[in-house]
Amino acid sequence: MKTFEELGVASPILKAIQEMGYELPMPVQEEVIPFLLGEDNDVIALAQTGTGKTAAFGLPILQKIEVSVYQPQALILCPTRELCLQIAGDLNDYSKYINGLKVLPVYGGSSIESQIKTLKRGVHVVVATPGRLLDLLTRKTVNLSLVKNVILDEADEMLNMGFSDSINAILAEVPSSRNMLLFSATMPQGIANITRKYMNNPREIVIGRKNEGNENIKHIYYMIRAQDKYLALKRIADYYPNIYGIIFCRTRKETQEIADKLIQDGYNADSLHGELSQAQRDYVMQKFRLRNLQLLVATDVAARGLDVDDLTHIINYGLPDDVESYTHRSGRTGRAGKTGISISICHIKEKGKMREIERIINKKFEKGEMPGGKAICEKQIVNLIDQIEKVKVDEEEIASLMPSIFRKLEWLDKEDIIKRMVSLEFNRMIDYYKDADEIEVVDEHPGKDRNTAFGKKESRRSRDKEEGFIRYFINFGKSDGLYPNQLIDLVNKCVPGKVRIGKIDLLDNFSFFEVEEAAAKRVVDRMNGFEIDGRRISVEPAQGKKGEGKGDSKGEKKKAASFYDRFDKRTRNNDKPWRRTSRPSSRKNRE
Ligand code: AMP
């Protein structure tokens, strides 16, 4: 690997980047810097965000500026104001030791007059969004005739945003004998059109494979029912207590709704979308950059140009329509050599889209297991303990307070204090998750498990690893129209809170079903109080060890039959269809 010096980077820039902590060039820099330091070199670079592309084009173009000539000599076009400011900021950092070099960001939404004034005073590098630059060109307030280097950054996104015509109009104003460098995370057809039209025998540099996602990113998906989407999001956020990420939504409305809900539910979240004023957007982005905000809920467009390196996760609240957007979204994590996680909370209908993304990024999505309440609480507690261990104690500052604190807590021993501290922090969460419904992960292969007696339910509830179920007898069977779905429905309606149901054995006149031990008492207490068409439900533990034998095992049959017979004589009415006339559902949705 070469050093920056060996690539030809000059000393004032070297000094600046060394101060920024750049020790060795990143791959894209190694390829692009020497090439752009030459003449008449056009480059198409397929590189994801976070690969170091700003320095890759920034260092050589700054180096080639003649500071004594007060005219734009380099032009960088990018899709958003935020990216524009980001690039201009980076270029200013790189050129810190080049006296008199001026970089001007030019973007919509801010005073055009002050941009015109600065242009009149003379600048060397213009970083612009296409719309505003075209406006300036139309007013003849910017002269691009001395431009030697043109960079199109995030070209695919500029096309997505409809800047194609503006780009064409701008490129018509720059001399044909310039270097042109086009960066794109993906290679849609529109890019090929631009390169054919404006680039001269461009060298193609691919950092990673074409259209391939960043290697450092793990892609996880949770396929769930639409109504559980928000609950799943909360669980994921709870499961990663140190999450620092962006939640991508499809529309501005959804973005705002999800952010509002999260804020209401006590999360450190905020929204970023096009309906906010520029000042609001700046404020939110600054909060996020400073890590004063943990979760940013954003639309694709608004999050462009938000350059934050250390994101732990990005969450797709539903998959985007096109693969490019997915690549851009997920490319916001796993940057600068770090690892990242891209989570997709999606619906079964999005499965095709997911496969398409997998194919193009050439990476498989891993199926995520929805964390249960217990796992979440454990994770949060471990995190708290970890923080306690690592917290920096400012002995001096707290010294004066300690005697009175020690006095107050004197009567408690260490164990008590720890328990109280944990409870203080977690009682709410433990309460919340104690009876919270499990979120069902949707069965992607319905029917696959049907050959086992209760395979379908087993797989839907993904309870393969679960143990501790108790087997119950119920005095209704197939001849009453009782089938697995009705039985599950009945249990859910009669018994508050989520009840996990295991095996179901249906016989003609009575049935058996397994219930998780934790809910067993609730099930017996509640179900026995119900009636169906005037007929009382009777549920009681089946004989024999739990999970042993089938519903037609002799012991069970004998007991069940006698029970059923007793019951039958009094109340049975086979003519009535399976219909609930019992009291309304007492099941509460706790989440
Ligand atoms: P970019 O793809 O230009 O947004 O860069 C991603 C991140 O990598 C930014 O925070 C850069 O400051 C950082 N970076 C770029 N080049 C280097 C380098 N050679 N060494 C260390 N960090 C770098």
What features would you describe in this structure?
The protein has 591 residues and is α/β, with parallel strands linked by helices. It has four domains: 196 residues, Rossmann fold (3-Layer(aba) Sandwich); 151 residues, Rossmann fold (3-Layer(aba) Sandwich); 62 residues, no CATH class; 122 residues, RRM (RNA recognition motif) domain (Alpha-Beta Plaits, 2-Layer Sandwich). 42% of the residues lie in helices and 15% in strands. The protein is built from 24 helices and 20 strands. A seven-stranded parallel beta sheet has the order 3-4-2-5-6-1-7, with helices on both faces. Strands 10-11-9-12-13-8-14 form a seven-stranded parallel beta sheet, sandwiched between helices. Helix 13 links the parallel strand 10 and strand 11. Helix 3 runs parallel beside helix 4 and helix 7 packs across helix 9. The two termini are 54 Å apart. The protein binds adenosine monophosphate.
Q: How would a crystallographer describe the biggest sheet?
A: 7 strands, parallel
- Calculate the terminal CA-CA distance, rounded to whole Å: 54 Å
Bound ligands, named by name, code or SMILES: adenosine monophosphate
Q: Quick check: average pLDDT?
A: 80
Strand content is 5-15%
For the largest beta sheet, what order do the strands appear in spatially?
3-4-2-5-6-1-7
Structural class: alpha/beta
Number of domains: 4
User: In CATH terms, what is the fold-level topology of the largest domain?
Assistant: Rossmann fold
What is the overall shape? Answer: elongated
Radius of gyration (Å): 32 Å
Tell me the total number of β-strands: 20
The named CATH superfamily of the largest domain: P-loop containing nucleotide triphosphate hydrolases
Q: Which second-level CATH architecture of the largest domain applies?
A: 3-Layer(aba) Sandwich
* Low-pLDDT segments, ≥5 res: 447-466, 545-591
CATH top level of the largest domain is Alpha Beta
Helix content: 40-55%
Contiguous helical run count: 24
